[in-house]
Amino acid sequence: MTDYSLDRVPDLAPSARYKFATRVMPLLLLALILLSIPLFEPSRTWLSLFNAIGINMVFALSYNMLLGQTGLLSFGHAVYFGLGGYAAMHGMNAIENASYDGGFWAAVPVFALPLVGFAGGALAGAVIGFPSCRRSDVPFAMISLGIAELVAAAGFMFISVFGGEEGITGDRMNGIELFGLSLGPLGDVYWFIAFWTFVGVALMYAFTRTPLGKIAQAVRDNPERVQFVGYNPNRVRYLVFIAAGGFAGLAGGMSAVNYEIFTPESLSVIPSGLVLLMAFIGGARYFAGPILGAVVLTYMQSNLSDYSEAWLLYLGLLFIGMILFAPGGLAGLLLSGTAALKHSFSVKGLLRVGAFASSALLAAAGVIVLVELAVRYSNGFGEAFEPFGLHLAPDQMMSWMVGLVLAGVGIGALKVLSKQGGMGS
Amino acid sequence: METVVFALLNGLIYGLLLFMLSSGLTLIFSMMGVLNFAHASFYMLGAYFAFTLGQHTGFWFALFLAPICVGAAGACVERWGLRKVHARGHVAELLFTFGLAYVIEELVKIIWGKFAVAYEIPPELNFSLFELFGSQYPAYRIFMLVVSIAMLAGLWYLLKRTRIGLIIQASLTHPNMVSHLGHNVPRIFMLVFAAGCALAGLAGVIGGNYLVTEPSMAFSIGPIVFVVVVVGGMGSLEGAFIASLLIGFLQTFAISIDSSFAEIFSFAGLSADGDLGRITIASLAPMLPFILLVLMLMLRPRGLMGEREF
Fold it and tell me: Are the beta carbons of A280 and B95 separated by less than 8 Å?
C-alpha cells in the first residue's frame, strides 16, 4: 500500500516572502514614487501633468475591471466618470453654499469629494448596469455604445444639471481643510490627487484579490463553467460593473476638484474611446497595464500634440499594432522581454531582444518620417521635416525614400525575427 | 399633409442610404460575427475618393471607380488585418476595427484637411425635377433614390438568383460545410468584406454631396448604422431593409415636428420653464435610434427579423 499521508503533499501556498514581494511591494513602490515626486520640485506644467496622470490612472484601472478582468468591452465608460464628476461638482457647489448658511454640506471637506464621485458613479452603474449586464460580449458593447450616446445627448439637454455647452464650474477653496491643505496652490492639489490615486489603486488591487474579483476572472475566461459551479455570471458582471462605475466616479471626483469644471463633453464617446486605448495599449491582461497606459497616453496627449499634428494617428497606429502583434500591451512586452532575459541570460538572448527593439524602432522611425512628410505636404506651407538636424523636404523624392526604406527594413527585420520564433520563447 | 409628404420622401431617401450602408455591414456581421466599427469609415472614404476622382474624371466615372477603390481597400484590410485577429475572438476584432476607424479618420484629415471639402452635386443633376406643394424638389434626391433601388435590386438578384449568392448564403450559416465542398471560405469572406465596403463606398459617393463630406462624417453616421444592423437582426437583409426605412422615417419625421414636451404634455401639468418641458421632439431625433437600440437589445435581442441571437 502506498502511503498517501498529507505530509507528502507539497505545500502549494505561496510563501510569505513571495506574497510580500508580489502583492505589497508594488503598492509600497507606488506610494514611494508618489511621495518622492514633490522632492524634485517639479514645475507647474509637470505638476498638472502628474495630476492628469493620477486621474487617468484611476480611470483606466476602473475601465480594466471590466475589460481585462471581466471580459466586458464597454464603449461608454466615460458615462460613469462624467456622472461621478458631476456629482462631485454639485457637491463642491453645495459646500460653497453651505459655507454661508451651514447645513449638512458644511461638514464635508472638499478633500472627500471623490467619495461623492464614487457614490455617483456606482449609483449610475447600478441603474444602467441592471439592463445592460444581462448581455455580454458584442451585445454588451453595443448597449454601452447606445447608452453612452444617449447620456451624452441628455447631458446637453438637461441644462440645469449639466450646465449645457459650457458645463458647470466650482471653487475648491471652500469648507473644511483636511491635512492642512487649502487646495488652492497646485502643490496642494498634487497631494490630494496622490492620496486618492493611491487609495484608488490599492482598493482596485484589493478588489482583484476578493472572491468577487476572482470569480469575475473566471467569468471572463469561461462563463459556462462558472454557471456549472453555481454562480450567475450576469450577477457577477453586474456587481463588477457597479464597482467599476464607482471607481470611474472616483476618478471623476478627482478631476472635478483638479479642474474645477465639468462639461457634458466628458460624458461622450470620445473620452470613452481614449480610456479604452489607455487600458489596451498599457496591457489589459495585467493589473499594472492600465497604469502604464495612463502614464504613456497622458504624456503623449499633453506633449506629443505640441510636436505633431498627427499624434492621434500615431495613437491609432500604436493601438492597431498592439492588437495585431502584441495583445499583451506594453506591460506584456516589458514582461516577456524581462522574462526572456531572466530565463536564459545569454549574449544571444540579449542580442535577440535588442534586435527586436531596434527593428521596431526602425519601422516606427520610417512610419513617423512618412507621416510627418505627408502632414507637411498636405499643409502646403513648404515646411520641411527636420529631425536631428536632417532636412527632409516633402517635395523631394529623396525624403520619401528615406521614410520608405526605414519602414521597409524595420518591418522586414521584424518579420524575419518573428519567423525564427517569438520573442524570448 | 405637406410636411408628411416631404418627410416621407426624405425619410425614404435617407432610409435607403442607410440600407446601402447597413446591407454590407449585415452581410459581414452575420458571416464573420464581427461588427465592423470602421464600416462608416469606408463610407467616408467613398465620398473622399469620389471627390478627388471626380476632379479628374468627372462624377459619372467616379460613381463607379470610387466604390471599386473602397472595395479594394476593404479587401486589403480583411486580408492583412482582420484575418489575423479573427482567431482571437470577436472582442479583439471589434477593437481592431475600432482602431481602424481612428486611423482612417486621421489619415483623411492629413490627406484632405480638417474641414469639409467642396464635394458638390454634379451640375447635370443640379436642377429641380418637379414642384410639390409650391416648393422645388431637387433632381439629385430622385437620382439617389434610383441608385439605391438599382443597388437593392442588384443585390437581391445576386444573392437569391446566382450561384455566387447561393454559396454566400450557404457560408453565412454553414461555413464548415461550404469549406468541405471545396470552396475557399476565407476568400469568400474577403470578397464579401470587400463588396460590403464597396457598397458603403457607393453610399459615400452619392451621400457625400447630399450631406457633407468632412472627417467627422464617419463617426456621426457609424453608430446609426450599427443600430440598423442590430434592430434588423443578425444575418437578415430584409430586417436591415425594414430597420433602415424605420429609422429613416423616424428621424426625418421627428425633425419635422417642432413641438416641445411642454406643449404635448401640458395636460399633465408640465411647464415650459423646466428642462424637460423645453425639450422638443426635433431635438430628440438624434437620440431616437439609440433608444431603439437599447430597447431592442434588452427586449428582443435577435432583432426584427433575425434568425438567431448574437
Answer: yes
- What's the rounded Cα separation, in Å, for the pair B276 and B270? 8
pLDDT tens per residue, range A93-117: 888 888 777 777 777 788 888 999 9
CB B231 within 8 A of CB B245: no
**Chain A residues close to B301, C-beta within 8 Å:** 135, 139
Burial class for A369, CB neighbours closer than 10 Å (0-12, 13-18, 19+): buried
Instruction: Using CA coordinates, name the residue in chain A closest to B278.
Output: A157
Residues of B whose CB is below 8 A from A370:
none
Using the 8-state DSSP alphabet, how is residue A4 labeled? -
Residue type, B20: M
Q: Is B33's pLDDT higher than 90?
A: no
Cα of B287 to nearest chain A Cα, Å: 6
In terms of residues, how long is chain B? 310
The span from the CA of A16 to the CA of A22, in Å, is: 10
Mutation site, B41, B103, B112, interface A, largest A CB count within 10 A:
B103
Q: Cα–Cα distance between A12 and A18 in angstroms, integer?
A: 12
Percent of chain B with pLDDT over 70: 92
Complex prediction ipTM = 0.84
| Of residues A86, A57, A81, A50, the one with CA closest to residue A148 | A81
Long-range contacts of A100-104, Cβ-Cβ distance < 8 Å, separation of 24 or more? none
The answer to whether A153 faces chain B, any CB pair under 8 Å, is: yes
Minimal CA–CA distance to A278: which of A62, A80, A133, A121?
A62
Spatial separation of the C-alpha atoms in residues A142 and B299, rounded to whole Å: 14
Residues of B with CB under 8 A from a CB of A: 33, 35, 81, 84-85, 88, 90-92, 94-96, 98-100, 102-103, 106-107, 110-113, 219, 223, 226-227, 230, 274-276, 279, 283, 286-287, 290-291, 293-294, 297-298, 301, 310
Amino acid A6: pLDDT: 59
- State the pTM of this model: 0.87
pLDDT of the residue at B310: 55
pLDDT at A112: 85
If DSSP codes are grouped into helix, strand and coil, which group holds residue A166? Answer: helix
Taking an 8 Å cut-off on Cβ atoms, the answer to whether A150 and B287 are in contact is yes
**Dist. CA B171–CA B177, nearest whole Å:** 8
Q: What is the pairing mode between strands A261-262 and A168-169?
A: antiparallel
Closest Cβ–Cβ partner in B112, B219, B287 for A153: B287
**Is A425 a residue whose pLDDT tops 50?**
no
Pairing of strands B135-138, B128-132: antiparallel
Distances (CA, A) of A68 to B60, B204, B222: 49, 36, 26
What the block records as the C-alpha cell of A270 is: 470620445
Percentages helix, strand, coil for chain A, rounded to the nearest 5?
75, 0, 20
* Residue in chain B lying closest to A137 (CA): B91
A134 backbone dihedrals φ, ψ, rounded to 5°: -75, -15
For residue A320, the chain B residues in CB contact (below 8 A) are 81, 96, 99-100, 103
Angle between helices A347-379 and A397-419 (to 10 degrees): 150
Tens of pLDDT, residues A120-147: 999 999 998 888 887 777 788 888 888 8
CA distance A207 to A244: 10
